[in-house]
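Suppose you are handed a protein chain with no further information: no name, no annotation, nothing but its sequence. What can you learn? This example shows the usual starting point.
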Amino acid sequence: QVRLVESGGGLVQAGGSLRLSCVASGSISIINVVDWYRQDPGNQRELVARVTSRGQTMYADSVKGRFTMSRDNAGKTTYLQMSDLEPADTGLYFCHMNVWTATTGSLDYFGQGTQVTVSS
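A reasonable first move is to predict its three-dimensional structure. Written in structure tokens, the prediction is:
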């Protein structure tokens, strides 16, 4: 079983910055992909950023140039550095991991999320 815990959210003024963290614990053999999603107050979910097992990153057009995703050397902690925040960035941010183990094969895990609120 894998558990994901996000942190780092909060209330920030437009133009400000936040760094979100997603820490994975449990039995993990291979992490295939890690994503950051956000869900806005209208419950629309958007893929914000992704990093693959090969280290390739992709970003939604709405955050390119402002958000940067990174991972620690062990790969179990993922960060989302958010800069020049806008009110439209407000939402519940949660991470997703696709994890492979010899016993379970490939499974998807989601965290509970951390709230980001950007005031104008």
